[in-house]
Each structure stands twice: as structure tokens, then as C-alpha cells.
Amino acid sequence: MEQSARGTFSLVVQEVQDDDRGRYTCEAVNDAGSCQVTVEIVVEGNAVKKYSLPSSNRAGGSMGVPAVENRPSIWGESPPKFVTKPSRLYLKVGQSGKFSAKITGRPQPLVQWCKGEDKIQPSDHYNMFERSGMHFLEIRHVCSEDAGVYTCLVANSAGKASATAELIVQGKRRVQKQIKKWILDQANVGHFPMGSNYHHLSKFFLM
């Protein structure tokens, strides 16, 4: 049994064995009544899973106890919350930029960035990192296909949360106009044959 400086009590089960499986109950008592929280440890091979069971209170008034997954528990856990959420990002083609978010929660939440429904994986194009408590998604050398809605998903054993922001890519129309002008200029001076290649390109850029 451990007690922190802030008064949090913890029961630490070290080097879990098969005999450690079962239900564990923590009971807090004061003059107003008592409250119990029960968890179950299930040992599956080399993996250990903890399941929270319904809480109960006695002789302390008529107010019910919130569900374990929706409240800070006496185990010192708290669900993730966004202190600052990612905000809309405006970038020009070729630029780089970052979404950022600040998150709290115990234990430390895991962070996953997504574009639409797809999880983003680290690459030369995407860089995900944490600095001074802030989580970042950096998008390098933006192209028009990067435009869209991005989601920051955070989760720990006490709950989960999400926040979204949009990336707007500017300059796509300007690039198209420059290409259109080049095609027309080449055709007008006779450097660009008015054949099938011209027709193929103009179908995309001279609409």
C-alpha cells in the first residue's frame, strides 16, 4: 500500500502471478458514510487486464455515485481533457504547418492523429511529437490533397476524448491558372502543337 503526498492511496501488485487474479475492493469511510470501488484483475497468459466493477455507497445520503469511467476515481485516475484544442490551419501549397493540442489526464493519455477515418503514421510528410506538454502534428510540404479534417484522439484507462480541426490549402487555383496561361502561351506562339497532347492537358486545366 502506498500513499502519495496529495493523499492518494494505491495498491500496487508487483510481478503478477496467477494467484493474484480476482476482485479487489477499496473502501473509503468517514462520518458521512462509506464508498466502495471494486476492480477485477484477470491474468491472461503474459497479459494483465483490469476491469472496473460498479461502485456502491452506504449511509451517506441519497446521491448516487457516477460511473467509474466518467469520474476521477480513488485510484488517482482521471479521464483525458483538452486544455487547448487544435485550431483551423491555413497553408499554401509547399508550406509546412502544425496542429497542436494540450491534454491532461491520469495516467498519461495516448495520442493518435487521424485524417478523416484514417490513422496517420509517422513519415517524411507527417511528424508527430510532444514538447513541453503540447502534442503536435506537423505536415510538411503541403499539397492540395492534404486539405481536410484532422482529428486528435486521446485515451487512457479512465476515458477518451477527441477534437477536430480543418486544414485549408490555399494556392491551388493560382497554380492551375499559371499552368493554363503557360499552355495558352505555348499554343499561341506555335510552340505547343494543337494535337492530342494539347487536348489531353486542356481537358484538366482549361475547364
Number of domains: 3
SS elements, strand count: 14
Cα radius of gyration in angstroms: 28 Å
> Would you tell me the structural class of the helices and strands?
mainly beta
Strand content: over 45%
What does the main sheet amount to?
5 strands, mixed
CATH class placement of the largest domain: Mainly Beta
CATH fourth-tier homologous superfamily of the largest domain? Immunoglobulins
Oligomerization state: single chain
Q: What is the average of the pLDDT values?
A: 77
* CATH T-level topology of the largest domain: Immunoglobulin-like
Distance between the termini: 73 Å
Shape: elongated
State the order of secondary-structure elements, H for helix, E for strand. Answer: EEEEEEEEEEEEEEHH
Low-confidence stretches: 60-72, 202-207
Helix content: 10-25%
Which CATH-level-2 architecture of the largest domain? Sandwich
Strand order of the largest sheet: 7-14-13-9-10
